[in-house]
Amino acid sequence: MAARLQVSENGTTNTKPDTVVAPAMGGLMIGHEVARALGTRSIFTERDADGKMTLRRGFTIRPGERCVVVEDVITTGGSTKEVVDLLRSLGAEVLAAGSIIDRSGGQADVGVPRVALVSMQVTAWKPEACPLCAEGVPVVKPGSRPGSQPEV
């Protein structure tokens, strides 16, 4: 993933990010390891008490700092997009985003070029439209985003 996140500039050289940023919790270890492979720093974002993605624990971003965002799994791209938006609001240049798994089949738009090691199309149903729910099959809710819809 580290090699794929070095973004091409004018098709001739690669831009090495200054910082790898990962949303906690799922992206934390992956972000750390990608940063280690790139020889750059790793930081992470967390949700505050209001559920807003933020930098805490003394982490800062300098204006113009080149960043990539790394996640474990992208389903809708919501958390990754929140991190991209946060970084941009702090003056960072967000080069790209990456994940190990892309459950959107390449459809999630996070506002920057994006790579995934595995991409798949996963069908998700709202409870009222779910054929398995209608049959009484128990619902399983993957992921950890508060307020996300249950999926089967």
**Regarding quaternary structure, how should these chains be classified?**
single chain
Mean pLDDT: 85
CATH topology (level 3) name of the largest domain:
Rossmann fold
Largest sheet: 6 strands, mixed
Helix content: 10-25%
Q: Give the N-to-C terminal Cα separation.
A: 29 Å
Q: Specify the overall morphology.
A: globular
> Structural class of the secondary elements?
alpha/beta
Explain what you see:
With about 150 residues, the protein is of the alpha/beta class. It has two domains: about 5-120, 3-Layer(aba) Sandwich (Rossmann fold); about 125-150, no CATH class. The protein contains three helices and eight strands; from the N terminus they run βββαβββαββα. A six-stranded mixed sheet has the order 5-4-3-6-7-8. A two-stranded antiparallel ribbon has the order 1-2. The longest helix is centred in the middle third of the chain and has 12 residues, at about 80-90.
